[in-house]
Structure formats: C-alpha cells, structure tokens
Write a structure and sequence with these properties.
It comes from Strongylus vulgaris. This protein has 3 helices and 34 strands. By secondary structure, it is mainly β. Strands 22, 23, 24, 25, 30, 31 and 32 form a 7-stranded antiparallel sheet that branches. Strands 10-11-12-18-17 form a 5-stranded antiparallel sheet. It is elongated, with a radius of gyration of 30 Å.
C-alpha cells in the first residue's frame, strides 16, 4: 500500500456522492504520515471532469457509482498513474469520510459471484420453500489438485462473535456422520476456519485434537466481519487426518491403493507399528508410519535393506529428538550396526518431505508425507530408490537421545519385496492385486491356469 492512484466513490462531509481521483502516498516518503500509507486529496476538482456519463446513488444502504473515465486526460493532468502494459492488484476498501477525505480503511475481501460456474463452484442460498437457507449464505469451492481445495464461506451476521457459517459433505443428503468445514467464532473467540463433525444423531461436535492440525491443514486464511457479514476463505488440505476417530489410517486400501506392513508378531511386541508405501511418478513415494505413543521423545522408523539384518540400511524415520518437535527425517544404519545422523540432512528435509502430516496425540504417533526418493548428491546415505531391487523392510520403534535413535525396543523384519510390486518370497499367486498392482490373465477352465505381468 502506497504510491497508488485511487478511484473512489465518496461523499465528503457536506458534499454529494461523486466519483473522484485521489492518491495513496507511501508513508516512507513523508514524515507526516508516521510511516503509514496515507490517502491524499488531489487539487482542484479532484479529477471529476474526467468522469463521463457519471452516475452516483445511495439507495437501500448501498453506495453505487459508475462512469467512463478519460484515462488520457487524467494522466496528462498528473491526476492518474496508469500504464496499459503493467499488471495491477486491485485494492478494495470502504469506510467513513470527513471534510478532509477518506478515513482509515481496511482492504477487505469479499465473495465474488462473477466467477461462479467458471473458475469456481458456488452454492448461493435463495431462501425458498425447498431451501430454507437464509439469503446471503454462500459457499464457493475451487479444486486446486488432488489434495487441496480453496473454500469461501459467507453469511449475514450482526456480530463478529458467536456466529458461524458451515458447509458439510454428505453422501446421502442427511446431516448424520458428515464432516464439516466452518467459519465460526465460538463464544468470544476470534473468527476462524475450523474442521468439525456431525455425529450419528446429527449433532455438531468438536473433533479432539483438531486444533493441533488446523494451522497446517488450513492455510492462506482470511476471516473477517464486515458490512453485516462474516466471511472466511482458505486453502484446505482435504486428504484427511488421523487426529480424530473420523479420519484414521485406512487399512481397507492396503494392497489396493498402497502396500502395507502391519505386523502382529514382533521382537518385544509390535507397539502398534505399521508402515504403508506407494511408489508414484518422478521418484516420489507416499509413506505412512505409525505406532503407539507414550512419551515425548519417541520414534517410528523403517529401514530399507538388501538383507534381513540391520546394517548399511537407508532409514526414513518420524521422530522427536529431545526438546524438539516430531518430524520426518532421513537417517542411516551403519555397519556397526548403529543408527547415525546424516550431516546437513536438515537442509533438504523440507524439500524432500512434502505434504507432511504429523500427529502425536491421544496415545498415537502418525506420520505421512510424499518423499523424494531420488537420492541426494551430497550423501549416499539418503535413501535412493532402486525399482529393480527387492527390499527387506525393517520396522523399529523406541526412544530418542541427543545423538539420534536409541536402541530399538520393538522390531520387525518383513519378507523381501519390490516396492512397486508383490512380496517375491510368496509361492502363491496373489489374485487380490490383479488389476491394481499388475495385469492378469486367469483361465476360466478347470485347469486353473493364470499369468500376471507388471511393467517396471
């Protein structure tokens, strides 16, 4: 804000409503502004002579102005800065005026219906017999990719506190067992976007632990009360989260959308350990790691080994070193064998682990992310996926110390497997993965012949 030409529809104190030109001066260029961008009046008629076929009205609480602006004349008189070859941000503002001009105002967002049906989908309430939703309630949505949706929510309100507008997602048109996204102010709390849930009785309930994921799942947020409306918009991660009972690790997609290792017999017990993985395009692996959580400095890790013993193994871990938060990291099992930190690994973790979701709540540690497994030129100890190699998966959990992972308390070693295919140690034909992990021909004759193929 600052050094901008302004077109305003205003009624200064004692004057009729009209279109004018003004200017926002950069606060750093004039000490009288105290460092804040300030709107200045222009001399003379403030450019009114350059507005042709002008209309200005105030009806039913709405200020309206329209005109054709002679841009060339206004620029020549030094009243307007404009170039047809530049891109501009449009800064909308409203507020009161006085004899000296417009008072301090805020640039505020609003619900724009023009893109509805074009760049975004919209529901605009009409308050009819078939739809009792009050006029002015609206939601828009724009799918950005498979993981993110941009939402807007708006509703009439007489107060910035104690109000809400929400959208729920039902498969049968009934408000039972449905997730919800809301723009709300609970009690006297500030207005914000949140996740909530309608239970089996149709009652809206809070989701335990939802606050812990809100800032990472709801980003680019705007939440305002203005002109008798509450308005929220944000980019929402729509992948779901294991933070609540309504969104947990989905074992039903194992061997369909993803491969899973869910052991039930482990050294010193399994401690709820599990891992899922899915090889995607461009050397990206989608991974989930989880275990029981009973301390602040724990870890769950998976090693990728060429044999069934610990030593010289790539490791992906979800851990909290003492006095640190849980995060996904690369580490390495050396040939001693011991787990070691990789020098400077922390400089690449944010770019190699994306769309991370880490939940340490209610006795469960759950971590998921998209992982770049193409390797790192600065260290051979960072996992480099080889599609032609069969890996043993070494699952381990335990506690951390200042140097890294302590000796594991719980361990499990899987059978060897290609990460983009089936368990190669099995002597049985796996019909379950036909059509998902591999192509199959299965004879319907009595000889029960079958063949499968997989392009690698």
């Amino acid at each position: 804000q600052g050094d901008e030409s302004v077109i305003e529809c205003s009624a200064l104190q004692g004057e009729p409503l009209s279109l004018k030109l003004s200017y926002n001066i950069n606060g750093t260029t004039d000490s009288s502004t105290k460092g804040e961008p300030t709107n200045w009046r222009l001399s003379g008629n403030q450019g009114t002579e350059f507005f042709l076929n002008s209309t200005a009205s105030f009806i039913d609480g709405i200020v309206y102005c329209s005109a054709l602006l002679n841009i060339t004349g206004a620029i020549s008189d030094g009243l307007l800065k404009f170039s047809p070859f530049e891109l501009y941000y449009l800064l909308m503002a409203n507020g009161p005026t006085d004899a000296n001009g417009v008072n301090i105002s805020m640039i505020v967002p609003g619900f724009d219906t023009d893109p509805c049906g074009l760049s975004k989908g919209c529901f605009l309430a009409t308050n009819t017999n078939t739809d009792p939703t009050p006029n002015g309630v609206a939601v828009s949505y724009r799918v950005m990719n498979n993981s993110f949706i941009f939402f807007e929510l708006v509703a009439p309100s007489s107060s910035k506190t104690g109000s809400f507008v929400a959208v729920s997602f039902s498969s049968n048109g009934i408000l039972f067992n449905t997730p919800s996204i809301e723009c709300s102010s609970l009690g006297t709390d500030a207005l914000s976007m949140k996740f909530s849930y309608y239970d089996a009785t149709g009652t809206n309930v809070r989701i335990p632990g939802e606050e812990s994921i809100r800032q990472t799942y709801i980003t680019q947020e705007t939440a305002v009360f203005q002109d008798g409306q509450i308005y929220c918009s944000a980019l929402v991660n729509s992948q779901g989260s294991s933070v609540s009972d309504e969104a947990t690790f989905d074992a039903s997609t194992c061997n369909v959308d993803k491969s899973c290792v869910l052991p039930d017999q482990c050294y010193r017990g399994c401690n709820g350990m599990g891992v899922s993985y899915e090889i995607l395009a461009n050397s990206i692996m989608k991974i989930e790691l989880f275990s029981v959580l009973n301390a602040n400095n724990q870890y769950i890790a998976v090693g990728f080994s060429d044999d069934d013993k610990m030593g010289n193994d790539y490791v992906i871990e979800c851990s909290a070193l003492p006095n640190q938060r849980y995060s996904l990291k690369f580490s390495y099992n050396d040939n001693s064998p011991a787990n070691v930190r990789i020098p400077s690994e922390e400089t690449i973790s944010s770019s190699y682990f994306t769309q991370s979701n880490i939940i340490a709540f209610d006795g469960e540690l759950y971590c998921s992310a998209l992982v770049n497994v193409s390797g790192w030129s600065q260290s051979k100890e960072v996992f480099t996926y080889n599609p032609s190699q069969a890996y043993y998966l070494l699952l381990a959990s335990g506690f951390t110390n200042d140097q890294g992972l302590d000796i594991h308390k719980h361990t499990f070693v899987s059978t060897p497997r290609f990460l983009n295919g089936d368990d190669i140690s099995s002597n049985n034909f796996d019909y379950a993965t036909c059509g998902t992990k591999k192509g199959c021909f299965i004879s319907n004759k009595a000889n029960a012949m079958a063949a499968s193929y997989q392009v690698r």
